[in-house]
User: Fold this.
Amino acid sequence: MNNSDPALFGSAPPKPSIWNDPFYRSLFFQFSAFVVVVLLGKYLFDNTTENMARQGIASGFGFMGSVSGFDVTSSLVKYSASSTYGQAFLVGLLNTLLVSAVSIFLATMIGFMVGIARLSSNWLIAKMATVYIEVLRNIPLLLQIFFWYFAVLRPLPSPRQSLDLFDMVFVNNRGLYLPAPVFDDLAIWLLIAVVVAIALIIFLTRWAKRKQDETGETFPLFLTSVSLLIGLPLLALLATGFPVHWEMPVLQGFNFRGGLTLIPEFVALTLALSTYTAAFIAEVVRAGIQAVPKGQTEAANALGLRSGVILRQVVIPQAMRVIVPPLTNQYLNLTKNSSLAAAIAYPDLVLIFAGTVLMQTGQAVEIIFITMAVYLLISLSIALFMNWYNKRMMLVER
Amino acid sequence: MKFFNSLAALVVLGTTAVTPVASAATLDDVMKKGFIQCGVSQGLPGFSNPDEKGNWTGIDIDVCRAVAAAVFGDASQVKYTPLSAKVRFTALQSGEIDMLSRNTTWTLTRDTSLGLNFAGVNYYDGQGFMVPKKLGVESAKELDGAAVCTNLGTTTELNMSDYFAANKMKYTPVVFEKADEVVAAYDAGRCDVYTTDRSGLAAQRLKMKDPDAHMVLPETISKEPLGPVVRHGDDQWLDIVKWTLFAMIEAEEQGITSKNVDDKLKSDNPATKRLLGVEGDMGEKLGLSNKWVYNIVKQVGNYGESFDEHVGPNTPLKLTRGVNALWNKGGLMYPMPIR
Assistant:
């Protein structure tokens, strides 16, 4: 603050000496704190390098280009034992992102349902939701992961006695086997149809909102969107003569080959992460809904809106402002919790990179550093996205 | 979980003061604190496993105890740190443990770029495969397409990759951090095959619901020389651990056991006199007491006694000496001359 305007005070107050000036003082202390932190960091870094060099431990990032020599259970990209450690890192990263994304989606779905159910006027539904929340959020996650893993694994039959559904879908203790779609060249039209459908839906949403703002008339947006999303690609398929065929899983030797495989580790981890986090999300959702003043619901009731419309159009949009920030926390927790995958052999970043690669190369410092940096980056990206979403959801004051 | 263990070890590595003696004199550190901190497995029957009373036993444990007997004259001056395969080297590098005796395979990479030194071999092993008998498989060559359970961070992972590639077979690895989880998953039917060192298969089989329902296939697909490990850069400590192991084998070669060691003190054999410290200064050359071998044999026993007690034919593991017999009985155990 600069209060030395002579027009206001007549004469300028005596300028404090540089030692007593709060501006320079705070500058000095902040600068010293900064220097201490930097020196401490440098001390730790030098010490580590020195100790490692003296013990003859290899260092540097050159190992990322060397051949890995190990295989992984499942991978989203092409990977074999002759790939590099860098590619093994990518395999682990993608598996972490996959299980996090799927679990975040499922946790949000379950969480919203349970959260709303807990506020239900139906006694049974409300109590069931309460029991769900209290049981799941009060048992350590690692135990839940083991529970799902062995609960999923033990009762299932071996591959030769697989349970099957129309001879197309097979379930056994090695995983869930689904037919995989194989696309021919003409299938590009299918992709185009999906893109066109999405573009049309976005356009329709804007148009419907404007129409409602101007005339008050509503438009059956949801039904139209669904039929567009199904209809257009179906039309494309018909027009191009079904350029898709299915690759069936076939029992061969020890197990099924071909088709899509969901390994039990993935299923167990996804179930554990999503049901566990959903319990927390449910409470966040309940808090958000209860934060909306009762008057809002009563006013909407007085206007004659149906209860579904009240929930969707009046309560949830306002509740979202309260829900989104703690929801972000839950998403971050879930992503970080996915590192428990190592306990049940799901090939995520921690198992493959901070596990096998660390062991084979012995470069613990570099690998743990990279792993921490990656989790930081993923978490910051999620936080950034959620902050952007939060800004959009904020109450626009008129 | 273990991730944080390695993290903690890294912090130790970062904050250990840079003084020339810090890593150079493990013996002094050990003498000062009065015990040896020995890294062992999280439970591998016969090698390092806590018994009903919670005492650690096994041939890997005996190496730790022998070093304590050599250094302190008291084999009980050891504290054990159970380590997963993944964190064992970091624990040693960071100084959390003084020596590692945890069925660890001696390889070039570990000996060089990890900053470690291997002090010898206390068990010559090889990797094998175990399958349920009802699978009807007779040879590892029939394992095309199998799901294989194994431990994280071991040479096993690399060997099986090499083996399946060399035989043009496909497989699915399922890799766990803890040995108990591997056994549980294999027992639950997640995998067709469980692979690790043959001694490990014999040991882990005891933990299964029905040990007799499983069989080990005849193929041995790798060399796994298992032995104690110390930090690089401390030659005296390396010498102590190395010669302690040799002394146990040498004692067996000379027929000195924990029962007759007191009689052998009166032996006329110069080699025995030298070994037991009646003559010469073998112990002092290592910086120890001259009675070091007497203490080892009296309190821990010779190599053969240790083998028979923990993994031999009369134990649940039922392992024969095989290549682990003495060199003059057709095996590979060949102690360097103590003179």
Chain A touches chain B through 56 residues (CB under 8 Å). Residues 22-55 of chain A form the longest helix (34 residues). Chain A is about 65% helix and 5% strand.
